[in-house]
Design goal:
- By secondary structure, the chain is α+β, with helices and mostly antiparallel strands.
- It is built from 11 helices and 15 strands.
- Helix 4 packs antiparallel against helix 8 and helix 6 packs antiparallel against helix 7.
- The N and C termini lie far apart (66 Å).
């Protein structure tokens, strides 16, 4: 009986030791995997310079507006332009400044701990790593744990906002003026919602992500197809069928997501979300090999303030989130009009509409 008990004890010790070793190895593997991501403390992000070649301001005095530049009102749905005088543009911007001042000095930031707002930022780093890039796309991926719903809410890069420490200008200037912190502070100040975390990826990382999934299927409208036809053919795709669904690789998906010359930035935000939804469908069927490739290739190109512990917890919930219904929109819901100032798009917002739209979309 004593020998039998000793054998049992040895087995228990062996099993326990093996489990401890496996747990440690698993922990080390997870730690190694997550160490590939550029996880940053939002309070201690390394500083870069503002690119001196970028003109991030919006001319507001009619005398500062180029007489040869295009100043117009643009219908965001149709892209139709109506010329407008420098004086009228200046008056519209003055009115917008008053609206921004009223909005930023009244009301607090809306939040609910059961609604997690993650800011997804796509940036073009260009040829220099010494300067902060402008944010090309800004999408709030919101996990509503109350209603078990995922929201994708696009913010227009052309939105005319107050940037702390700087004059009022377009939203995409905030990142270029000084890191994700300033962009998050700008969004919270103007849009009145809390941003809990951020994830940034550059164009190269975006293209590699798409290629790991062997492309994404996107349905092209006739106008989109006409613009991309030559690029599709150059990549070896059969374009004889005309408009329809095409499997876009990383290069083509980026071209599609950035396309706005055929219409307006509002329609471009719709295209960006179509690509994200297509990626979401790919993730649902991701293989172990693709997971490993994703980890090794993409994660080093991602910057986030989500901690390792939070990443592990959220990864465990990924399958659940993938099955939640997805709701998407561009804020404000009502398209409104853009103004062209010296040929650059500036979106003047009704902040009452913006606040009510976001509360309805994210918290109801």
């Amino acid at each position: 009986m004593k020998k039998l008990n000793r054998k049992k004890n040895k087995v228990i010790i062996w099993v326990t030791s093996s489990l401890i070793v496996l747990f440690c190895l698993g922990a080390l593997a997870v730690n190694y995997t997550l160490s590939k991501i550029n996880i940053v403390d939002r309070e201690n992000i390394s500083q870069l310079d503002v690119d001196p070649s970028l003109d991030l301001t919006v001319p507001k005095n009619k005398d500062d507006m180029a007489t040869t530049g295009e100043n117009a009102i643009v219908n965001q749905d149709t892209g139709k332009k109506t010329k407008i005088s420098n004086k009228d543009i200046s008056n519209k911007l003055d009115e917008a400044d008053r609206g921004i001042a009223l909005n930023t000095t009244s009301g607090g930031v809306k939040y609910n701990d059961e609604v997690i707002n993650i800011l997804l930022v796509g940036v073009d780093r260009g040829s220099s790593s010494n300067y902060w890039p402008r944010s090309d796309s800004m999408i709030i991926a919101s996990l509503n744990k109350i209603n078990k719903r995922v929201n994708l809410i696009s913010l227009s890069r052309a939105s005319y906002v107050a940037i702390p420490g700087h004059e009022n200008t377009r939203l995409n200037a905030a990142y270029a003026y000084g890191e994700p912190n300033l962009l998050i502070e700008t969004i919270e100040l103007n849009y009145k919602i809390r941003i809990d975390k951020f994830i940034t990826i550059d164009f190269e990382g975006f293209k590699k992500l798409i290629d790991i999934f062997h492309g994404v299927e996107i349905e092209l409208t006739q106008t989109e197809f006409d613009f991309l036809k030559d690029k599709l053919a150059a990549k070896g795709l059969d374009v004889s069928k005309g408009a329809g669904t095409y499997l876009l690789n990383g290069d083509l998906a980026l071209e599609y997501a950035r396309l706005r010359s055929i219409d307006t930035d509002r329609n471009r935000t719709i295209r960006q979300r179509k690509v994200l939804k297509a990626i979401r469908e790919r993730v649902k069927t991701i293989s172990a090999l693709q997971t490993a490739e994703l980890i090794n290739t993409i994660l080093p190109l991602v910057t986030t303030d989500i901690t390792k512990k939070e990443l592990v917890l959220q990864t465990a919930n990924l399958a659940k989130y993938m099955n939640w219904p997805l709701k998407e929109a561009t804020v404000p819901l009502k398209s409104g009009n853009l103004v062209l100032v010296n040929g650059s798009e500036v979106l003047i917002l009704d902040w009452n509409d913006v606040r009510s739209d976001l509360i309805a979309l994210l918290y109801s």
